[in-house]
Design goal:
The chain is an alpha+beta fold. Helices cover 32% and strands 34% of the residues. The chain has helices at 14-25, 53-62, and strands at residues 2-9, 30-36, 41-46, 66-67. A hairpin with a 4-residue loop joins strand 2 and strand 3 (41-46). Helix 1 (14-25) crosses helix 2. The longest helix is centred in the first third of the chain and has 12 residues, at 14-25.
Amino acid sequence: MENATLNVQGMSCNHCVKAVEGGVGELNGVTSVKVNLNEGTVAVEYNPEKVNLAAIKEAIDDQGYEVE
């Protein structure tokens, strides 16, 4: 398993948390997603043999948030 913490712009409420955690959490190979609104970060634990960081970033982007 690998861990990554991404800086994400535009998250401001619990709806944002649910959208990001739901979108990323649906990806095959993602085992954990945790949004920190105060810091503007998304911590992800994933299996790099099943999913890559680009796909995770795209899932966040698809929810309408910008990954730095």
